[in-house]
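Can't paste images in this forum, so I'm doing it all in text. The chain is below; anyone willing to post the predicted C-alpha cells underneath?
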Amino acid sequence: MSRRLAHVDRVGIEERAAALGARSIKTTAKQQGIRLAVSMLDLTTLEGADTAGKVRQLCAKAVCPAPTMPEIPSVAAICVYSAMVAVARAALAGTGVATASVATGFPAGQVSLEAKLRDTEDAVAAGAEEIDMVISREAFLAGDDARVMREIERIKEACGDAHLKVILETAELGSYEHVRHASMLAMEAGADFIKTSTGKASAGATPGVCLVMLEAIRDHAWRTGRIVGFKAAGGVSTSKAALHRLVLVKETLGDEWLTPERLRIGASSVLNDLLMQYAKTQDGRYGRGEDFSIE
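Text version of the structure:
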C-alpha cells in the first residue's frame, strides 16, 4: 500500500536539536527547570517482578520525592501494568498524582484488537486515569494506515474519560518521515498525547525524534486548533537530558506547553539524578544516590 510521506530535513532537525541542547542553564533557572521536570515525570515500574509493596513504595516517592527538600513537587503520575492499577490508585488517593497504565499488549502490541480492548477496559475499570497504548508497528510498517488509526480510535473509545497516550516506538519506524507520519496518524485518530517509546527499545526519545514529534504537534494544532500533549520516554535518564527536552518544547511550542497537562517525561531512573543535581545547585556538591530512596 503506497503512502506519501512529508519530507523531513534530517540535517536541519539534528542541527537545531544539537544547538538547543548546547544551551547553558544557570543555577536559578536550573533549579526551576529541575522542579518543573520532576512535576512532569511519569514514574514507572513495568517489570514482571513488580509487587504491591514495590508499587506502594514507588507511589510514596511519587508524592514526596525528597522529604528534605519540600519545594520539590510531586510527580505527575505513576505508570504500572493494569494488574497493579488498583494498588496504585488506592495508594495515591487524594494526592493529585495520577494513576497511569500501559495496555494493548505492551510493549510489543502483538495481540488481537479484542485483547487490546480488553486490556484497556480492565485497566480503566481498575481505576486508571491515563492509558499508554502501543501502535501496531507491523501494520504501520506494512503501510496499513487505516488499521493503525482504527485501532487507536477503538482504544480511545474504550478509555472513556481516561486520557490516551499513543506510543509510536520510534526506534522501530526507520526514519524521521515515518516518525512524523505516525505522529499525525495518532493525533488524527484522537490521541491525547503522543509518546516516543515504550522504553524497552534500543532508543526512544532522541533529541531529533523529539523535535520531529514536537513540530508535528505544533503543525497539527495550527491546522485543527486541537492541543495534543507530548511524552518523552526511552533514553531520558539524566537531569541534563530531561532539561534538554524542556528546552526543545519551550522553543518549539512555547512556555504554555511547560505543564504536566501537556508534557510528560517517562522514566524510572531519571528522578534520582534530578534530585542529586538539585542538591548540587544548593550546596555545590552532588547528592549521593543513597541519599534518596531507590525506585
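The first strand starts at residue 41 and ends at 44. The chain has one domain: 16-291.
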